[in-house]
Design brief:
Layout: H1 3-11, E1 14-19, H2 22-25, H3 45-48, H4 51-56, H5 58-74, H6 79-90, E2 93-98, H7 104-107, E3 114-115, E4 118-125, E5 160-164, H8 173-185, E6 188-192, H9 203-210, E7 214-219, E8 230-234, H10 237-249
Parallel strand pairs: 1-2, 1-6, 2-3, 6-7, 7-8
Antiparallel strand pairs: 4-5
Helix pairs in contact: 1-10, 6-10, 8-9
Bound molecules: 2'-O-acetyl adenosine-5-diphosphoribose.
2'-O-acetyl adenosine-5-diphosphoribose binds near residues 165 and 194.
Length: about 250
Amino acid sequence: MNPAVVEALRNCRHLLVFTGAGVSAESGVPTFRDALTGLWARFDPARLATPEAFSADPELVWGWYEWRRQRVLRAMPNLAHRTIAELARRVPRLTLVTQNVDDLHERAGSQDVIHLHGSLQASRCFECGRAHEGLSDELDEPQEGRRLAPPRCVHCGAAVRPGVVWFGESLPQAALQRAFDAAGECDLLLSVGTSGLVYPAAQVPQIAARSGACVVHVNPQPEAVGGAREYSLAGAAGTLLPQLLRAAFGD
Ligand code: OAD
């Protein structure tokens, strides 16, 4: 374990943890692109994850998201999620910002998670925008490639849509602002399991680096690091994060 990273964690006052699909990979949750396998492989993400796609074929899009939601309901938080929840008890302040639409951080015990790309659980009306409360938490056999009629809004009768950010849509403004504010204030940012390619979320570590924070990437794909206070830890989050916690704070 890099001693500079251990030292930065031990001394930090405000830790920002920024996560992407890789943090849930060891829980068996397919990433956005991996999710288009098997019977879904013949679909282009741009055909499924847009408001236009939902308008044109709600059963196709709702069926795909229900399949993903059922996969997440069956998944369990892994050591990376649990270590991030534990870190909140070890540092004076922790802000957790995720690009993921699953709820595995919450189920691992993290509180006040900032979801930049929405949530599979938070569906709402496609027309009037009001929240839809009726999604069942009961496990249903996920059926790949199955079309499914979306529920109807109890207020206006229009179709209910998944509460995620689709291509061409804006991110939730309040969540994005909180993430940017925390990036400007933190002294250490751990970027875990993200390719850092999708904007504006990818600005979060960039703002932290510009504001003088130490930035550490945790990813099996080593990151090309540029800044003097930027480090890459190459490996799986479920292995490296517990090692880092132990090195900084003991058991
Ligand atoms: P990506 O699928 O682009 O990247 C996942 C990253 O996780 C890759 O860099 C992998 O190398 C890494 N990874 C894989 N296994 C890992 C492990 N065990 N530990 C640590 N890292 C691991 O996912 P995101 O960066 O989250 O947006 O993608 C960002 C956004 O692109 C998503 O939120 C989604 C998508 O389009 C929307 O839906 C709006």
